[in-house]
Amino acid sequence: MIEAQTDRISDEALISLVKKNHSGAINELINRHKVMVFNLALRLLGNFHEAEEAAQDTFVKAIQSIHEFRADSQLGTWLYRICFNTCITYKRKKRLNTFSLSKAKLEEHPTTQLLCALEQKDNVKYLNQALSTLSSSDIAIVSLFYMDDLPTHEIAKVIGISEGNVRVKLHRARNILKDQLKKILNNEVLNL
Amino acid sequence: MEKQVIQKDDYNDPEFEMWLRDQLKQTMVEPSENLSQRIMAKLDKSIDKSQTDPILLIVLVVLLMLCSCIMVFLSVFPELWRGITAKILVLDTGIDYRSLVHIITGVVVIGILFFRLDNLLNKKVGKQKILLTF
């Protein structure tokens, strides 16, 4: 009954329930944001298991410090910021290669078969190659903007830079992606 | 609304934008089905770690109360009563009371130090269980 009620409530009401340690609300908060948090971590870390670990850490940190959450940004934005910082720390610690979605590691998990199947499509494979040339913050900006349709002022809060800077970085990242895709496609054509 | 304005200002290749958005959305992956349960389990674990052992707290409080009682007894009650209770407790002089207070205080201080050290190590080492836990 409680679980059903938490399905429809707003983020604000959900936060106040989480502050009271309501397990149903905590579960609902995780379910609402886990896909995007996980995908942001996957884009940044490039490894399914590492991304799941980072997503877990993100939610644990967020729920433990929920009392520090101020309503000046959206809950999702706050979670992405924690996730972004967690992933950056992971990368520093483990020196993971950005977006090294190696097939061997992806095939360890059945869910990733979907990604492998998608990777078989050439355009996705080329896009992944192009994305690997971007910096962590650029990957996060591109992912949040295109995958989650987050506005630039919210992305600025996630990355911790100004909105103008986000726009500049987004513009530059898009141009890099375009150039990289052209290069990759040219190489593919030459190799035929 | 804001995004639409930005798109009009900055984007010179709307076809590429659309393609990029579609492709990126297609590559979105569902996490494991049990991710929520694993997060909940991790949360329960971390709550357990952060909680103070109630037995340790009770021991510390009892020892501190005992210390305070002896100190109060030494300062309030006359020499005669101190002599009588010393004989009952098989203690010879008032100095023994002081040494008793010193011992108890020492035990409490060492207990608190170990407790803090345990907490610090738990925070530093994180996932591993520390043997120093009372």
**N-to-C series of helices and strands of chain B:** HHHHHH
Unreliable spans of chain B are 1-9, 127-134
Report how far the terminal alpha carbons of chain B are from each other.
58 Å
Instruction: Report Rg of chain B.
Output: 32 Å
> What best-fitting shape of chain A do the alpha-carbon axes yield?
elongated
Tell me the helix content of chain A: over 70%
Estimate the global geometry of chain B from the Cα principal axes: rod-shaped
- Largest beta sheet of chain A, briefly? none
Secondary-structure element order of chain A, N to C: HHHHHHHHHHH
Q: Tell me the strand percentage band of chain A.
A: under 5%
Multimerization state: heterodimer
The count of helical stretches of chain B stands at 6
List low-confidence stretches of chain A.
98-118
Spatial separation of the terminal alpha carbons of chain A: 60 Å
Number of helices of chain A: 11
Q: Indicate the mean pLDDT of chain A.
A: 80
**Total beta strand runs of chain A:** 0
Radius of gyration of chain A: 18 Å
What attributes does this structure have?
heterodimer; A: 192 residues; mainly alpha; 11 helices; 0% strand; elongated; B: 134 residues; 77% helix; rod-shaped; disordered N terminus; disordered C terminus
Give me a quick take on this structure.
Chain A is mainly α and 192 residues long. In chain A, 76% of the residues lie in helices and 0% in strands.
Describe what this molecule looks like in 3D.
The complex is a heterodimer of chains A (192) and B (134). Helix content of chain A is 76%, strand content 0%. Chain A is elongated, with a radius of gyration of 18 Å. With 192 residues, chain A is mainly α. About 11% of the residues of chain A have low confidence. Chain A contains eleven helices and no strands. By secondary structure, chain B is mainly alpha-helical. Chain B contains six helices and no strands. The radius of gyration of chain B is 32 Å and the shape is rod-shaped. The N terminus and C terminus of chain B are likely disordered. Classes of the chains: A mainly alpha (192), B mainly alpha (134). At the A-B interface, helix 3, helix 4, helix 7, helix 8 and helix 9 of A face helix 1, helix 2 and helix 3 of B.
